[in-house]
Amino acid sequence: MFYPVLLLLLCLAAAPLRAGGDQPEPALTEPGQPEPGTLCSPGTFGPVQCIRPSHFVHDTCQALEHFARRNALDPGFFARLIWQESRFNPNALSPANAQGIAQFIPSTAKLRGLGDPYNPAEALEYSAQYLGELTRRYGNQGLAAVAYNGGEARADGLMAHSGGLALETINYVAIITGLAAETWRDTPPETHDFRLQGDKPFQQACHELARNRTLTAYPEARPPLHPWGVQMAFGTTQDRALAQFRRRAQACSGTVGGEEPELVWQKSRASPRGGYWMARLGRDGQGDARQLCSKLRQSGCICAVYRNS
């Protein structure tokens, strides 16, 4: 009959044409399945967070805030620390073999139970949990940053006034927090501004940081000087003073250990630059300074004791 044939023709005309005849186009992702390459946290310490390749910035910033707040960290602090560690690169590898977005070295990853440091969601979960633990142990986020970068033994030495920090850690803490490590130990602020960009909400500022490398940097932090210093070297620039210190310290490396000197500016007419940078090992008392200088001399180094003005 005419009507059934007409109806059949209308149905065929309305049906969409597909590649390969009547076979439907394959979906990129099965319904309910995650995007290929998506990496998720194991949920060891709380709800699972996932980071999708096509939404890496959005998901990373969301994970940063989630894990920070879950571990009583300021999201701005956590983001600044991870940015300093890896620039949010999940595949980062340092010369010291620190791996992934949170830069865990293999021994620390194993100790903390982190399975895959190159899984950014997992690494951020474990990093925030560790930083939260360090904050509770040492009393504030600044000292947690000291331990995260320099190790807990160095942080313990700083707290006990029995050891110094590596220059890398000194700079690391100042860049992330805007304050010196000694300030976090001696006179920590009750509150601190860790915001990434002024009044901008965290997520907006985090997205801009990841996409445009936009970050409000802190002014250079200068650690407070010890009252007394054991001078071993000097130079017209900080780099020259440090280089001379390291050369001279080789003769008594067993006494100096890994302690970094404090750099003290002293005016001098003899200098073409109007003064010199003095490299001194800081001590709280004159007696302690004299005792250290005596040991250095016995080990073959030249030194002198001065009050830091």
TrEMBL record:
UniProt-listed SUPFAM superfamilies: Lysozyme-like (SSF53955)
Keyword list, A-Z: Lyase, Signal
Transglycosylase SLT domain segment(s): 68-155
Keyword Signal part of the UniProt annotation: yes
A Pfam entry, by short name: SLT
Main enzyme class: lyase
Annotated signal sequence range: 1-19
Enzyme Commission number, as recorded: 4.2.2.n1
GO molecular function: lyase activity
Protein family membership: Belongs to the virb1 family. Belongs to the transglycosylase Slt family.
PANTHER family on file: MEMBRANE-BOUND LYTIC MUREIN TRANSGLYCOSYLASE C, SOLUBLE LYTIC MUREIN TRANSGLYCOSYLASE-RELATED
Name used for this protein in its record: Lytic transglycosylase domain-containing protein
Protein's organism: Alloyangia sp. H15
Source taxonomy: Bacteria, Pseudomonadati, Pseudomonadota, Alphaproteobacteria, Rhodobacterales
